[in-house]
Every structure is written in C-alpha cells, then in structure tokens.
Amino acid sequence: MAKTVKKKASKAAEKPEAATVTKKTAAKKTAKKKVAKKAVAKKAAAKKKVVKKGVTPSAVSPTRSVTAAERYRMIQEGAYLLAEARGFADGDPNADWLTAEAEVDARLKKSGVTVTK
Hints:
Number of strands: 2
Radius of gyration: 35 Å
Strand content: 5-15%
Number of helices: 3
Shape: elongated
C-alpha cells in the first residue's frame, strides 16, 4: 500500500505542473488567435476606408449645371455665413463676398457642376 500511496502522491504532484503547462499553452493559443483576429480586422478596416465622404460621382452627374442666379444665391449665403461667424463686426463685406465666391466656385468645379447663364 505504501507504494500505491507514493505513486498517487507523486502523480498528484505532477498534475499541477501539467495543469499549469496546459493552462500556459492554452493561454498562448488564445493570445495567438486574438492577434490573428486583430490583424484580419485591421485589413478589413483598411479596405473599408476606400469609400470617400462627400460628393460621389454617382450623386452628381457631369452634365449637371446651376444657373447664374443659383450661383449668386450660394455666394450670397456663404458671405452671410462668414460675416455671422465673426459676429458681424469689424469686417469687410467685399472680402466676405470674394471669399465666398472662391469657395463656391471651387466646390462647383470639384463636383463637376457647370454654371449656365
């Protein structure tokens, strides 16, 4: 009986080490899986960033145009918003108009919209 007890005791002493090794191995495998999932997620996220915000070619056709009166209204509104942003104080209305005109023309050109008279 003494031998049986010693064997069981020695096996019991070995099991915690084996359990520790198994736990470490399992933890490493889990960590590797997490790293692999993160890498896949980063690649997927990188591919999704291709979509640009703003005006898309399908939203504005190249043949779209605005009238001169519409362009004037856009510039007028832009100049007002510039003056409003500074509190309508100490500013040059002509400078606001020219700034708004440049912004409107740049946006129209970027989106492929032409101005008709």
